[in-house]
Write a structure and sequence with these properties.
Blueprint: H1 3-10, H2 37-47, E1 55-59, H3 65-72, E2 77-82, H4 85-98, E3 104-108, H5 111-120, E4 125-130, H6 139-148, E5 152-163, E6 171-172, E7 175-183, E8 187-194
Parallel strand pairs: 1-2, 1-4, 2-3, 4-5
Antiparallel strand pairs: 5-8, 6-7, 7-8
Length: 205
């Protein structure tokens, strides 16, 4: 890990909202790649930048940084999913530090199994965040699974972080791409909107 990346991880924090400026602990080791503060700030500016309530699902949650940022910016509740024990331990530590235990749920399981369990629990979300290790996930498969199980509310958003060389579908079921861009040479962002015209909910154009 380079000094620049190490410093960026050490300085990971909540960017805006009620919890602004609070430090977040990173997952130990090299298996998890945290979203940089620069990318996180730009991403939430595209999606809001603030929410008027709602529920979010943070798949491949790592440290929980994205879901915690969403709560700080106005989401009512966040569900964090990761299959790594170190990640789950870190998420619990971060949500305890932020004192948002009552607004969160954490589960250790595979993302596809989590979607199945979520459907059984009849939960639906206004924001779903997908940030897996690059080049390790078929995004079409997981997007289809989300839509098949009807987990995203009308007008809801799906945030996908991916490698710049990965091709994501431009339109899928009722999803439409509302923003797609690259940050540097490695990180790509694609944001989907479900169901209704983007002009009613999205001010990023």
């Amino acid at each position: 890990m380079s000094n620049n990346i190490r410093n960026e991880v050490d300085m990971m924090r909540v960017i805006a909202g009620e919890l602004k400026g609070r430090r977040l602990e990173a997952v130990p080791g090299k298996q998890t790649r945290p979203t940089s503060d620069k990318v996180k700030e730009a991403t939430f500016q595209m999606m809001g930048p603030f929410f008027n309530g709602g529920r979010c699902l943070d798949l491949f949650a790592g440290s929980g940084s994205l879901g915690i940022e969403a709560i700080s910016r106005g989401m009512d509740y966040a569900v964090f999913i990761d299959k790594q024990s170190k990640a789950i331990h870190t998420i619990y530590k971060n949500i305890k530090t932020m004192k948002i235990e009552e607004q969160t749920e954490v589960a250790r399981m595979d993302a596809f199994r989590a979607l199945k369990v979520t459907q059984k629990n009849k939960a639906k979300f206004d924001l779903i965040m997908i940030d897996p290790p690059y080049d390790k996930l078929d995004y079409t498969d997981i997007l289809n699974e989300i839509m098949k199980r009807e987990l995203l509310n009308d007008g809801g958003l799906i945030y996908c972080e991916h490698g710049t060389t990965e091709d994501l579908p431009s339109n899928l079921e009722e999803l439409q791409v509302i923003k797609q861009m690259n940050y540097g040479q490695t990180t790509g962002i694609t944001i989907y909107l479900n169901g209704i015209h983007k002009s009613t909910v999205f001010a990023g154009e």
